[in-house]
UniProtKB/TrEMBL annotation:
This is MKROS protein. Residues 3-113 form the MKRN2 opposite strand protein-like C-terminal domain. InterPro entries: MKRN2OS-like, MKRN2OS-like_C.
Amino acid sequence: SFSGIIYNYDKEGVHRDETGWEQCISVPLVQPDMFGLLHQWDKLLEEFSIGEDWLPHRYEEHEHNCYTYALAFINSVLTAQGKQHMSKSEFTEKFVIPQTKRASKYITLHQELMAKEFYIVHHPEQEKQC
């Protein structure tokens, strides 16, 4: 179960929501070498979110949006760690795509179970062991 606050950015500015994100995909961002940041994470996110870049009038649907907000925050943390920034494509490939592929598999499985009440997977390697 989830507990916490979801920070997000849209044409109305930065929002801090406690509900309404039950259908979202969680993308783990803190690597083992960054665990020291966990206790500072909320403070860093709040400080980042009050910046002028995230005022409502700065929002632009394709170029300055919630994705930009998330990536800019991640890059601000990387900067604080003395690490190199990630590009949109690197972030998408490294973090977003693996999680969406996993979610897609679970959604497909769920749909099959709801429709048929069972799901069969063929494992040729198991047949060889018999």
